[in-house]
Amino acid sequence: MGYTVALGGKGGTGKTTLAGLLIRYMIRHGMKPVLAIDADANSNLNDVLGVKLEGTLSDAREEMKTSVPTGMTKDIFMEMKMEQCMIEGDGFDLIAMGRPEGPGCYCAANNLLSNLIDRLIKNYDYLVVDNEAGMEHFSRLTQKDVDLLLLVSDPSRRGLTAACRIAELVRSLPIRVEKTILVVNQMQNDAGSWPEDVLETFGENHIALLPADPLLAQFDREGKPTSLLPDDASIVKATDALFARLLSKDK
Predict the structure, then answer these.
(1) Which residues does 62 contact at the CB level (< 8 Å), separation at least 6?
(2) Structurally, how many domains does the chain consist of?
(3) Under a CB-based contact definition with an 8 Å cutoff, are residues 213 and 234 in contact?
(4) Which of 8-12, 18-22, 110-114 is predicted least confidently?
(5) Half-sphere exposure of 225 toward its Cβ, with a 13 Å CA cutoff?
(6) Cα–Cα separations (whole angstroms), residue 76 to 35, 67, 83
(7) Do residues 113 and 57 touch, judged by C-beta distance below 8 A?
(8) Where is the CobQ/CobB/MinD/ParA nucleotide binding domain (predicted)?
(9) What is the pTM (predicted TM-score) of this model?
(10) Are residues 166 and 134 in contact, defined by beta-carbon separation less than 8 angstroms?
(11) Which CATH number covers residue 132?
């Protein structure tokens, strides 16, 4: 598997926006092809990237229970559906996992999906996974090595506490993580001192700050893809500098 960046964080902290800006950075710096996996049940990475979502893997999983044509095996059906769900962008491909399981047994479908995704991943040099807070989708994959884990928070105490809890959860999962960074979004000024649990969980050298950017908020309000933010936007300059530091050291 290629170089993997996973993102996690409480809803509303800017995690998906950061994932989109990371993919933009990778493409502009020749780090491609990129496979983007939207593993958040509230799938909206496609909106950030400016592409239309045609379907999710959870839709395919539901269809598999009732709609496999006669004479077609379930694995071939799921592979066909996964190809239909794939969105081809400029320098990246995107696939959305969709909502988690409902009532009933999904073991067979989930195993098929995991195997198909693991095979798909091998075709890409870079993988970006935008997770739910608990990273449940990612924990199901058999390819679980993460080169860089970005846990995203806002400056609020609740957001920081959630990031610490997610970090602890990740440590309990069968996932090897090379480096973990806490990214604190929407900073209005210097952070000052960090709470003790934040420092114990991440360490001062593994905390990155990103500024509040009114232009980013404007793009969100107007429904514009944030991947189209101008190069001189403060959030773009800050994330570009962050990614340059993190990826150049790890590659």
Answers:
(1) none
(2) 1
(3) yes
(4) 110-114
(5) 15
(6) 21, 13, 11
(7) yes
(8) 6-225
(9) 0.88
(10) yes
(11) 3.40.50.300
